[in-house]
Design goal:
Radius of gyration: 30 Å
CATH topology: Rhomboid-like fold
Order of helices and strands: EEHHHHHHHHHH
Helix content: 55-70%
Number of strands: 2
């Protein structure tokens, strides 16, 4: 044994960043304990974490969702604004393009030969009454700003279109086959129905929305009102049904499948009702049409 000489200890390896082995680092991640260079360090509640641990935590974090399970998005209700823009542009087109209204309006007689009119008619409005489009677009604006963030963009768009289709089915089943209709009223009443269902599901006060719906339904039944109450009824029922499927589908991994499956069933039912409603019209008018 040598006296007066300090004992030599073996040199410990210099810790290096796993992502950048050429960079020594004596700062370790509070989660995994690995060294992390300044570029790979992320400030945590206590100390720092490495970028890999932060990424892992973020991937496991549950993404925020709407009340119906859709993706929660921030920003403006873009679908609502897009629908309003389409209706306003087509309203201008009805003045500028001869015959546009006649080519896109809906009546029961067109169901067999031009069924797409059941959808296109919801984007047109009466050119003889500016309040027709004004009321519908105002209602769409008010309801859309509430429902679109609650449902998500895609679910809101599907609700609007399916409810509008339901309004046309209501016209087919309840109105004379030669009665022509235009307007977004069926789809808008579908939004009223959806708002009513969602409000009820969350324990809200239904009285204000019931009063609004009741007043508009009564106006539609008044003599000389020239309002397609049939579209209102059809849209209201279908919109409420779609919202019920979205809201009351059991929560869980398969919720989206149940929601879209339920909406598909509603569309199929509307298709069957369309076929049943068209059958007597075809039988009555086919001899006249040659």
């Amino acid at each position: 044994m040598a006296f007066g000489q300090p004992q030599q200890e073996p040199h410990a390896p210099v810790p290096t960043c796993p992502r950048h082995p050429d960079r020594p680092s004596y700062v370790r991640c509070q989660r995994c304990g690995r060294p992390a260079c300044p570029e790979c360090q992320r400030t945590a509640a206590v100390g720092v974490q490495c970028v890999d641990c932060v990424a892992q935590v973020n991937s496991q974090r549950r993404q925020p969702q709407t009340v119906t399970g859709g993706r929660l998005t921030s920003g403006r209700p873009t679908v609502t604004y897009a629908l309003i823009a389409v209706c306003v542009l087509l309203f201008g087109g009805q003045y500028l393009i001869p015959g546009l209204t006649d080519r896109l309006l809906y009546a029961g007689l067109y169901t067999g030969s031009e069924p797409w009119r059941m959808i296109t008619s919801m984007f047109l409005h009466s050119t003889g009454l500016i309040m027709h489009i004004a009321f519908n677009m105002y209602a769409l604006y008010i309801l859309g700003r509430v429902l679109e963030p609650a449902l998500g963009h895609v679910r809101f768009a599907v609700l609007y279109l399916v409810a509008g289709f339901g309004g046309s089915v209501g016209v087919l089943l309840l109105a004379a086959p030669n009665v022509a209709v235009v307007g977004a009223s069926g789809a808008v009443f579908g939004l009223f129905g959806a708002f009513m269902v969602i409000t009820k599901a969350h324990g809200g006060n239904l009285v204000p929305v019931l009063v609004i719906i009741g007043i508009n339904l009564v106006i539609g039944f008044l003599p000389g009102a020239n309002i397609a109450w049939q579209a209102h009824v059809g849209g209201l029922v279908v919109g409420g049904a779609v919202a019920a499927v979205l809201v009351f589908s059991p929560r869980g991994r398969n919720r989206a499948i149940l929601q879209w499956g339920g909406i598909a069933v509603i569309v199929v039912v509307l298709g069957v009702l369309t076929w049943l409603g068209w059958a007597p019209i075809r039988a009555a008018y086919q001899p006249l049409m040659g």
